[in-house]
Amino acid sequence: MTDSMGRNALIAGGAVLATVLATFGLGQLPLQPPEPVAPVEVEGRTTTICPAADDLAAVVSSGREGGSLELGGLKSGVSQLGTTDAVTQYEELAEPLMVSAGGGQTRASAAGVHAQRDGGPDRGISLGTCTEPGGVHWFTGLGGNDEMRSVIILTNPDDAQVSVDVVFHGRDGEMATPGTRGIVVPAHETREVAVESHVSAPELVSAQVRSRQGRVAAIVADRAGGDQPKGATYASASTLPARSVVIPGVPDGPGGRRLVVVNPGDRRASVHVEILGPDGAFVPVGGEDVRVNPRASVEVDLAEGLAEQAGAVRLTSDQLVTGSVVSTSTDDPGRQDLAVQPSTPVLQGLGVAPVGVLPGVASSVVVTNAADTEAVLPLRVRNTAGEHVAENSLVVPAGSTRVWNLPESSEPGSVFADVTPGTELYAGVLLSSDKDFDRMATAPLIVPQPEAEGVEPEMDPGLG
């Protein structure tokens, strides 16, 4: 009896509440909104690896204050704090240099290496961008013959060993290269893969570096010429294959300009090649319709089409592709130097060329606007002495390239680009000198990004 009365009272109370809500509306109840919660900023980290050589110097560039920088040797683990909002040089790299950025520096700092050699097999200006470890890297324009020898440098920055596959792609498709699968790179160690030990081809080839687990940093050391040296440089990875890629910072002047395109997919790619030059976009001779067979790599001579102009190469394809341009400084073999321009991501946020100026070397910034509207790119140059060498707001017409020649600097320095959101700009630096021979080096402006911790990497179309 008592339970029945309780249930009846509960039902009656519910009916009264329903009547109140129907009469006055739910919005009339004196509900208090929750207190706003402040956003939580997650501090990410970015690691970059610089290759080592006795005569190499590393430049660590920080374009803003805030966050942290830490530098240490790959093997020794000896570390020191880096300086933010500054450009700092570290000389005589006895072991690979690890640069760890935290907080705001993940989007504001980068590192590069440089050397000037008057003779020997590596003569000329060698320039390279220190690289982030990852699961997949693509390199296009590798040599495995007497004219050009490429060495892929694999570095493991972590505490566990990593197993790496290097898959080569040539004119006829994927190449059979015993000994390039399952390469073990122990913790905090470096392994080198000499292309000529596995590939014998008269043309330039491409390679995919992929880790089976973990991550690996990769960069290529290129050396041109056999008995007669023709220059040396470091080449960064190209962007992951896409249906549209841009290769910026192709230098002006004489010399060879060889475009190398790789198609990692299972269908033949039809690639449209455009030059974005000082006078706008045009299709060079031989670039109307480049066919690339499945899992193959092709070479296209662009020297005539470029007509000694600086610019960028835009590839548009019905399949996923990527590429680079291999350039020489002159047609005279006795005076040549070598430079490689990879495809790069579009600039956003802060763009950085860690080594943008060097003493006694002419320097310029080559900026390309791939969009349909005019854009302005604010640029600034700062050297290791703390001097603000130059600044400029470079106006770049739609579909065109502009070159900013930099003033001389008494010390090495970096180029920073403060990119306006919504623009579609790409850029690279060109260094040159005619001391003894025609020296040349190039490097792209890169976009520092924090590592995506805890996120599985997107699978690349070339993964088997």
How would you explain this protein's 3D organization?
- There is one protein chain.
- The chain is mainly beta and 464 residues long.
- It has one domain (45-444).
- Helices cover 6% and strands 49% of the residues.
- The chain has two helices and 33 strands.
- Strands 18, 19, 20, 21, 22, 23, 24 and 25 form an eight-stranded antiparallel β-sheet that branches. Strands 9, 11, 12, 13 and 15 form a five-stranded antiparallel β-sheet that branches. Strands 1-6-3-4 form a four-stranded antiparallel β-sheet, with no helix packed on it.
- A hairpin with a 4-residue loop joins β28 and β29 (388-396).
Features:
Secreted protein; DUF5719; five-stranded antiparallel beta sheet; mainly beta; 464 residues; single chain
Shape: globular
Structural class: mainly beta
Total domains: 1
How much helicity do the residues have? Answer: under 10%
Poorly predicted parts: 1-42, 453-459
Number of strands: 33
DSSP strand content: over 45%
Span between N and C termini? 75 Å
Number of helices: 2
**In this structure, how is the largest beta sheet organized?**
8 strands, antiparallel
Average predicted confidence as pLDDT: 89
Based on CA atoms alone, the radius of gyration comes out at 27 Å
